[in-house]
Structure formats: C-alpha cells, structure tokens
C-alpha cells in the first residue's frame, strides 16, 4: 500500500505522458498540473485504459492554465490498471499525483 506521492512528471510538448499506473488495488488520489511558463498553456488529463485516451476518458480536455498557475483535480478514484495520462501543448508543465493506494 503506497501513500503520498504516487507519480510525478515534467511533460514533453504535445506528447501523452503516463504519470501514474494504478496498482493491484483501487486508488484515491489528487492530480496537480502546474504551468511554470509566463504564458497560458492548454492541457489534457485522462484516467485511461491505455496511454492514448479515448474521448470518454478525459477529465480535462484543452483546459487552459494561466501563467504561473495550477489546475487541481481531487478525490479521483480509479481501479487497478488504469493510467493517469497528461498532455500539454508545450514544455514547462509538471504533474504530481498524490494520494493512497489501497
């Protein structure tokens, strides 16, 4: 049973990145997406079955994060094997997944 930080990543530009894969038991977690740029950035966030999400799996799609700001999604529950997949239009965006497996 893990708790605390479950996954972290600095996103590459225009690339789906798997930040966390849910283990053998369901997880409850929060996702924080930070834009460290001095300009707005569009991001996607999905809880998906594969590294390329389907349209139905997105929690956020083309959501704009203002300069030096954060998008936070909390209380997410996901089953075993699901992936937290993030995407940003440019670099300078980091993702943190923190919570409880269990």
Structural class: mainly beta
- Shape field: globular
- CATH level-four homologous superfamily name: Nucleoplasmin core domain
Class in CATH? Mainly Beta
Please provide the ordered H/E string of secondary-structure elements: EEEEEEEE
Mean pLDDT: 97
CATH architecture: Sandwich
β-strand percent reads: over 45%
Number of DSSP-assigned strands: 8
Radius of gyration: 13 Å
Distinct helical segment count: 0
Strand order of the largest sheet: 1-8-3-6
From the N-terminal CA to the C-terminal CA, the straight-line distance is 6 Å
Multimeric status of the protein:
single chain
The parts where pLDDT drops under 50 for at least 5 residues are: none
Number of domains: 1
- Helical proportion, percent range: under 10%
In short:
The protein has strands spanning 3-10, 17-21, 27-35, 41-48, 58-65, 69-78, 83-88, 93-101. With 102 residues, the protein is mainly β. It has a single domain (3-101), classed as Nucleoplasmin core domain (Jelly Rolls), CATH 2.60.120.
